TrEMBL record:
Protein known as: DUF3943 domain-containing protein
Residue ranges occupied by any DUF3943 domain in the UniProt entry: 128-232
Extent of the signal sequence: 1-27
Species for this entry: Anaeromyxobacter oryzae
Key words of the record: Signal
Pfam families recorded: DUF3943
Length: 505
């Protein structure tokens, strides 16, 4: 694969997406009126009438995709709603308890940064905030998961998206100021609170998807599976039952893929020296992709943040200090639907995102906010989905996957653009094409800039039922500039294959 691939991928994606855009002008938005939830559990006949906007027939416009029948399409399923309650004192108590629990474990295993006292706390307030030099993966994956723990403490005790973000922010602030010897870190506060909120809400939605699909009284197996998705929420359910469960939280549509496979091979090139490395793979790999609230679904309602989101995770077991991994989350925080979903539809609005990418030549991360549009059109047996997104990155970071010299990374504001296409060929195959471009200044650390491109093509063929096989090609390019060093230019290509389990409705 040559360096022309990203530009060609971007052109193809742009042209195909533009083919969908003219339909927007002709489309009329559906006027959806949210029904009042039943007080507890209604009879089957009444429930189906009350919950008609959920698509009780399971008909989502004939989308060509392997899908299960949604639970609310079963006449025996009884929609439910519990009286909404919240407990702020419990949420804050759990946030502080999580902080102390993590500190105790860290202190018990002998980490020097956990040897705190009144003097270290005072120094943290006097010295002020810094940008730390901790491990990239601890900062970008570990801290968001920590933030998700705080988030679930509030979300599972009756609080909404923004209130739960406050819990993540407070939990991170307490840790940074009081629970470590080192000075409080700006980058940790951002990734823990914002990254933790987006990760926490996405996983909380999946937790509720598993739980609520079993109705008002889910089986112990469902409760155990849900606990694994969001442990703090699962603990609160065990301790308080349905006291803070509130309304049923099931999407009208979702699609998911679980991948188990292998990185077959690839290559990485450094254009400063002309050296090419071909020792990429073979490595085992695991990953998943969830699309929640599929654009174009006729009964999709966009009332709350993250009623639509896209989340993917991938990890290759490379046996290196710097793993090949990615976590990509984007969610609609404010927006509206387009069309009625009868052959054409979509959504548009303001998106928030949290990206972490680590490929053989670069690592990139960013907290983004910006406008986007996602459209769908169906022509008989062929269905095309397209998404375009342009975001500012108030906080971004990036650098070399392998250390080339001291502090070989940038922190600063920036921007990113994203184009994605997914074609569904009847119910047998999907072809995904995506392209991302990141530009990150070094205004916060190092100076100059990072310019990074990432393209991905994946073909998935369904073999039987939900079982499929996938082949993937990833391409990455990095150009970096530093004030007192030559510019860096690198690229890499990776080939992968996997068994894929397809789910959703």
């Amino acid at each position: 694969m040559t360096s022309e691939l990203p530009s060609r991928a971007g052109v193809v994606a742009t042209v195909a997406l533009l083919a969908l855009v003219p339909r927007v002008a002709a489309a009329q938005r559906a006027a959806a009126v949210a029904p009042s939830p039943p007080a507890r559990v209604a009879s089957s006949e009444q429930s189906l009438k009350l919950e008609a906007p959920f698509g009780a027939t399971g008909d989502h416009g004939g989308a060509v995709w392997y899908r299960l029948s949604p639970p609310f399409a079963d006449p025996r399923f009884q929609p439910f709603a519990f009286e909404p309650r919240k407990n702020t004192a419990l949420a804050l108590g759990e946030v502080v308890g999580i902080d102390f629990g993590m500190w105790f474990v860290s202190y018990w295993i002998g980490n020097d940064f956990s040897k705190i006292g009144f003097d270290t706390i005072g120094q943290n307030f006097r010295k002020g905030w810094i940008i730390d030099t901790d491990s990239y993966w601890v900062n970008q994956l570990g801290h968001p998961y920590e933030g998700a723990l705080f988030y679930w403490a509030a979300r599972s005790t009756g609080h909404d998206f923004y209130e739960s973000f406050g819990a993540s922010f407070v939990g991170s602030l307490v840790w940074e100021q009081f629970m470590e010897v080192q000075s409080p870190s700006v980058n940790d506060q951002i990734t823990t609170s914002i990254g933790g909120t987006l990760l926490g809400e996405a996983l909380y939605r999946m937790y509720r998807l598993v739980l609520d699909s079993g109705g008002a009284k889910p089986t112990p197996w469902r409760e155990a599976a849900a606990f694994l998705v969001a442990p703090v929420a699962g603990f609160n359910r065990w301790a308080t039952g349905d006291r803070y469960r509130g309304e049923m939280l099931l999407p009208p549509s979702w699609m998911g893929q679980l991948h188990l496979g292998m990185v077959i091979g690839g290559s990485a090139a450094d254009h400063r020296t002309g050296a090419t490395e071909t020792t990429v793979g073979p490595w085992g790999s695991v990953g998943f992709h969830v699309l929640y609230g599929v654009p174009g679904t006729p009964d999709l309602r966009l009332r709350e943040p993250m009623d639509h989101f896209d989340m993917s995770f991938a990890l290759a077991f490379a046996g290196k200090a710097e793993p090949t991994a990615s976590l990509l989350i984007r969610g609609l925080v404010l927006g509206d639907g387009i069309g009625r979903g009868e052959g054409f539809g979509g959504l548009w609005g303001l998106f928030a995102s949290y990206d972490v990418i680590g490929v053989p030549v670069f690592k990139a991360t960013g907290v983004g906010l910006g406008p986007g549009v996602s459209l769908m059109n169906r022509w008989g047996w062929f269905e095309l989905h397209g998404t375009a997104l342009a975001e500012l990155l108030p906080w971004g970071g990036g650098g070399s996957m392998e250390t080339l010299f001291a502090r070989d990374y940038h922190y600063g504001p920036g921007a990113q653009g994203m184009l994605e296409l997914r074609g569904h060929f009847a119910d047998r195959a999907t072809l995904d094409l995506s392209f991302r471009e990141y530009w990150i200044s070094g205004a916060y650390a190092t100076g100059s800039y990072e310019d990074m491109s990432f393209a991905k093509t994946m073909l998935t063929v369904r073999v039987h039922g939900p079982h499929a096989v996938s082949g993937t090609v990833d391409w990455a390019r990095r150009h970096a500039s530093y004030p007192f060093a030559p510019d860096i230019s690198q690229d890499a290509t990776v080939w992968s294959a996997s068994y894929t389990l397809m789910q959703g409705w």
